[in-house]
UniProtKB/TrEMBL annotation:
InterPro entries: DUF5676. Keywords: Membrane, Transmembrane, Transmembrane helix. The keyword Phosphoprotein does not apply. It comes from the Bacteria. Pfam families: DUF5676. This is Transmembrane protein. Residues 79-104 are annotated as: Disordered. The chain crosses the membrane at residues 7-31, 58-76. It comes from Sinorhizobium medicae. Residues 90-104 have a biased composition (Basic and acidic residues).
Amino acid sequence: MNKLSTLFVGIALGVTLALLSMLCALTFAFWPNATLDFFGAFTHGLDLGAVKSTAPMSAGRVLYGVVGLGIVGFAARSTMPSPAGADIGPRSRRETARQVEDRL
């Protein structure tokens, strides 16, 4: 049965979240109001203009967010069902009594 490595899943998720964070920062730098309108559509029309920061966007703040989301994505691998990997498919990693007997 095919297995996913939790390490590689964590790395992939961390890199993906970091790239999305960089893309978000880049679009916000060029089109702040359009970006807020776009994400407001995700929240069913909630006006996000009220939470817009008046502080200028600095490279340090962007890097902090990118690294933070990368770490969160990597740490999310600990929520996977098994330390050795997760099974691919509709069934979870359960052994039947017969499989346990065959293994012994």
